[in-house]
Structures are given as structure tokens and as C-alpha cells.
């Protein structure tokens, strides 16, 4: 299997006045096509920082972060944006949907931004919303949906481009236990039989245990368990 993400001796730090804060130190690992991985660690340990680095939203202080074998530190911000759009789908703790648009347009938006035909984008949006059980909510705006339904729309939006990797940052953290379990199973089900890698950042061991592989972030370093 090919590497979607490769992390080579990556460190990340920032300065506040004369003080240097080291967030990540000498990380080495890779995420392969079709692989399911959890990154766990306590709140504030740098999990979201690492996710931003892997997504090309930030660049390492030291070392190399490769996306699809391309070193993100060596390309322009425009090229990083295109690389990110091509390779990743994102699901966050909060859905980040556009409140003025119904579900079908929220999900179709990534394709429309990429220049896809409107009718084809909406047709694909309808299909994937049906796959996540929202065929009767196509024209409902986010305010008309439950928390679990809004997160399902966010998942559908992340998957519509058929990304090489789905990056999920605490995707069930804002849901009650029942909805959290349903959303997690939905993410796993959508990922089955696809070459899409699934990477979930979480502090919840019950979520990590459903992944094939777990990486633990502790004291700025990564450990495979």
C-alpha cells in the first residue's frame, strides 16, 4: 500500500517572547492507503496541531511532512490548498455547515468549488446523503436538523470527493452517547471496501479500539501501541 501521509523527523514549536514551547518532537510514522488509525492523547498534548501538520494547514518547524509523496514545506500555499482538496476530507467536533444552505448544497459544495457540473454535484450529494440515512432531509437547513443529523451531513460532505484520507478530529465529541456511537459506525461503514485511509484524532479509547492501529501522543512524542 502507498503512503498517503509520511512524517519524517517532524518537530513543531513556537516562541512566546524568549520562551520556546515544544509541541511535537521528532515524529516518524506514515499513514497508508485504506488504513484505519487513531491518534490518542490527553487534551492539550498536540493532537490537533499534528492533524493540522498532516493536512498541510501548518508546516513543521523541523523535518518533512509528505502528502502523496510531496513535501508540503517545498510548495506554495496555493499548491498546498490544491493538494489538501485533492487528498483529504475533514470531519470536526463541530459540523461547520453553512447555515443558509440546505443539506444537499452543503454536501455538494466541495465539488462545486472544484468546478464540477452543478447537476452532477447535486445528484452525487443526494446519493451520499441517502447512504447516510438523510434522504428525507435533503432540503433541510442545519438549524432544522438534530446534532446527529448535522454531523452526518458533515461526514457526507467530507466523503463526496472520494478523498485519499478522511481526517476526523474528535468527530463524536459534541454528541450524546447514542448519536456518537451511530456516527462512529457510519464513518467506519463508509470507509469499508474503499482505498480511503481513515485517521481519527481522539481522547476516547473506545473509538481508538475500533481502529486497526493506534498511535499515542505523549510528552511531544509519538508511540505505536
Topology of this structure?
Blueprint: E1 3-16, E2 19-32, E3 36-40, H1 47-54, E4 62-67, E5 70-71, H2 77-87, E6 88-91, H3 103-113, H4 118-131, H5 147-159, E7 165-169, H6 177-191, E8 197-202, H7 205-208, E9 213-218, E10 221-224
Description of the structure:
There is one protein chain. This protein is α/β, with parallel strands linked by helices and 225 residues long. The protein has a single domain, classed as Rossmann fold. Helices cover 34% and strands 29% of the residues. It has a 6-stranded mixed sheet with strand order 6-7-8-3-9-10. The chain has a 4-stranded antiparallel sheet with strand order 2-1-4-5, with helices on one face. A hairpin with a 2-residue loop joins strand 9 and strand 10. Helix 3 packs across helix 4, helix 3 packs parallel to helix 5 and helix 5 runs parallel beside helix 6. The radius of gyration is 18 Å and the shape is globular. It starts with a strand and ends with a strand. 38% of the residues are buried.
Characterize the main sheet: 6 strands, mixed
Q: Helix content range of the residues, please?
A: 25-40%
SS-based structural class? alpha/beta
CATH architecture grouping: 3-Layer(aba) Sandwich
Number of domains: 1
> What percentage of amino acids are in beta strands?
25-35%
Rg computed from alpha carbons, rounded to a whole number of angstroms: 18 Å
Q: First CA to last CA: what distance?
A: 21 Å
Average pLDDT over all residues: 84
Tally of separate helices:
7
Stretches where pLDDT falls below 50 for ≥5 residues? none
- Elements, N to C (H/E): EEEHEEHEHHHEHEHEE
CATH topology: Rossmann fold
The CATH homologous superfamily name equals: P-loop containing nucleotide triphosphate hydrolases
CATH class: Alpha Beta
The count of DSSP E runs of length 2 or more, i.e. the number of strands, is 10
- Indicate the overall shape: globular
Strand order of the largest sheet: 6-7-8-3-9-10
Amino acid at each position: 500500500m502507498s503512503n498517503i501521509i509520511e512524517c519524517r523527523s517532524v518537530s513543531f514549536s513556537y516562541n512566546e517572547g524568549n520562551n520556546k514551547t515544544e509541541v511535537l518532537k521528532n515524529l516518524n510514522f506514515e499513514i497508508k492507503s485504506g488504513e484505519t488509525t487513531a491518534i490518542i492523547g490527553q487534551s492539550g498534548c498536540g493532537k490537533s496541531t499534528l492533524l493540522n501538520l498532516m493536512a498541510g494547514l501548518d508546516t513543521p518547524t523541523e523535518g518533512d511532512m509528505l502528502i502523496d509523496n510531496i513535501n508540503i514545506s517545498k510548495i506554495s500555499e496555493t499548491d498546498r490548498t490544491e493538494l489538501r482538496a485533492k487528498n483529504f476530507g475533514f470531519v470536526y467536533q463541530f459540523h461547520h455547515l453553512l447555515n443558509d444552505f440546505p443539506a444537499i448544497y452543503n454536501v455538494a459544495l466541495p465539488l462545486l468549488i472544484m468546478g464540477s457540473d452543478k447537476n452532477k454535484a447535486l445528484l452525487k450529494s443526494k446519493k451520499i446523503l441517502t447512504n447516510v440515512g438523510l434522504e428525507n432531509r435533503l432540503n433541510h437547513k442545519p438549524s432544522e436538523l438534530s446534532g446527529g443529523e448535522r454531523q452526518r451531513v458533515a461526514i457526507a460532505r467530507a466523503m463526496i470527493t472520494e478523498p485519499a484520507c478522511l481526517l476526523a478530529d474528535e468527530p463524536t465529541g459534541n454528541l450524546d452517547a447514542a448519536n456518537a456511537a451511530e456516527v462512529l459506525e457510519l464513518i467506519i461503514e463508509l470507509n469499508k471496501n474503499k482505498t480511503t485511509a481513515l485517521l481519527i484524532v481522539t481522547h476516547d479509547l473506545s473509538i481508538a479500539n475500533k481502529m486497526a492501529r493506534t498511535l499515542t501522543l505523549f510528552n511531544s512524542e509519538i508511540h505505536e501501541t
